[in-house]
Write a structure and sequence with these properties.
The protein is mostly helical and 439 residues long. The protein is built from 14 helices and no strands. 85% of the residues lie in helices and 0% in strands. Helix 1 packs antiparallel against helix 9.
């Protein structure tokens, strides 16, 4: 049995690795394509549009998709997937209606406001984000069900379709940020349709384990709403870097910063997300309803081991990039962006440290205690927001990169404190076990 389990985990790991390789490769190619055709100011305009799209992910739908991933294994264990899927559909529909209301209000404002260009960009970004939110919800189910090949397929498909539609639209029309966003919408529609096709293959026959079925919608929303609360703050912090540069600098600086972010912060975050995508469903299944002390202890130790490995990987990647940053830019970015390559190692360091904190948060989520994360998320977001503004005002692009390092470090340190505090394991025993069993 142990050998079969190892083989199964190895197969899952391979599929996740293949999927993430496809995503990272596609993301780098996308950066190369877009920087080839867009000037830094146009690229900055696109980056600002994507910050609007992230509002839906952070505030509106992010908590729901996380809730879907957390409660799937519990519903499957109870034989109540049909009720669970109905609740998922209702929650995602309510979230979509909220976004439609926002789009309608912005459309009405456009009639009287002299900022029609920004409103058009916002509405296109919100449409893209809403469709992507449904894709994320379907992906959460497939990942929770540990259907790794399907997750890997759709992850790679999405980014390469973005490249395809972007190139097609650029050749058909004049290159523009809005046109690229429209291409993103086309890719999101196709991927989401494919997700629904695969989702229909999951068996949902009802075989309840007892006569009393929980209110899945209420349980999922109770788990999801803290994500929306801290999402308001984390979203503000995550967009403040680009908008601060826009307010106190220029669109060109926003474009240059976006390239550093996409070549440094994003790839290492994707690598860490690969680990979390593999680890999350396993931890959630092992935790179950988070009432077994032995299971909680195992989850705690696994999360710490993976965090230490993530920190080691971050250190190696950062050191290597100090030597290779110019060659990386020559390979993946048009020449007009090369002047900021020296900042790349610091963005990799920032992304790695923040992602290590995210891995630790899995332990809290496995215990079904998302409320415990609110204070850490909100405080670190406020620190990041203020640091981004101060950095942009005083030092411009370099100041914002420095602020990213500050907020990532603050978040990671707070997650260490929260993780150790929330555990019932003796800290000295925990560290001893980590040293002995890290491999």
């Amino acid at each position: 049995m142990e050998f079969k389990r190892i083989i199964r985990l190895a197969k899952e790991g391979i599929w996740i690795l293949l999927g993430q390789i496809s995503i990272v490769a596609g993301s780098l190619v996308l950066v190369r394509v877009l920087t080839q055709y867009l000037d830094p100011d146009q690229y900055g305009y696109l980056a600002l549009g994507l910050t609007i799209a992230s509002f839906v992910n952070q505030v509106v739908m992010g908590g729901i998709t996380n809730s879907i991933g957390r409660f799937f294994s519990i519903a499957a264990g109870r034989g109540e997937l049909k009720l669970f899927f109905e609740s998922c559909y209702h929650l995602m529909t309510y979230a979509s209606i909220l976004v439609v209301i926002i789009i309608t209000v912005l459309a009405l404002v456009r009639i009287i406001a002299p900022i029609s260009q920004w409103i058009d960009l916002a509405n296109i970004a919100l449409i893209f984000a809403t469709i992507s939110g449904w894709n994320a919800g379907c992906n959460a189910i497939q990942n929770a069900a540990r259907h790794r090949p399907i997750v890997a397929f759709h992850g790679g498909l999405e980014v390469w379709l973005k490249i395809l539609f972007s190139v097609l639209l650029i050749y058909m029309f004049e290159p523009s940020s809005v046109l690229i966003m429209v291409g993103f919408i086309f890719s999101a529609i196709l991927v989401t349709c494919s997700q629904f096709v695969f989702l229909n293959r999951i068996g949902i026959s009802e075989h309840p384990t007892d006569a009393t079925s929980p209110n899945w919608g209420f349980r999922m929303w109770s788990y999801a709403w803290p994500f929306s609360i801290w999402g308001i703050f984390t979203w503000a912090q995550q967009i403040s870097d680009k908008w601060a540069l826009q307010a106190f600098g220029s669109l060109e600086e926003v474009g240059l910063y976006a390239v550093i972010f996409q070549l440094g912060y994003t790839p290492i975050s994707l690598v860490m997300q690969m680990v979390m995508a593999f680890l999350g469903p396993i931890l959630f299944q092992r935790s179950g309803s988070a009432t077994d002390e032995k299971s909680n202890r195992a989850v705690h130790l696994i999360a710490w081991r993976i965090t230490l490995l993530g920190l080691s990987f971050t250190a190696i990647a950062t050191i290597l990039t100090f030597t290779l940053h110019e060659k990386i830019f020559e390979l993946f970015v048009a020449k007009k962006f090369h002047e900021v390559s020296y900042l790349l190692p610091w963005m990799i360091f920032s992304g790695g440290i923040f992602s290590a904190g995210q891995i630790l948060s899995l332990k809290i989520l496995a215990q079904i205690k998302p409320k415990a994360l609110i204070g850490v998320k909100v405080f670190s977001a406020i620190v990041g927001l203020l640091a981004n503004i101060v950095g942009a005002v005083l030092f411009g692009l370099e100041g914002v990169v420095t602020s990213m390092i500050i907020v990532s470090s603050v978040y990671f340190l707070l997650m260490i404190f929260l993780s150790r505090k929330s555990s019932e394991i003796n800290n000295s025993d925990c560290w001893l076990s980590l040293k002995v069993n890290i491999f």
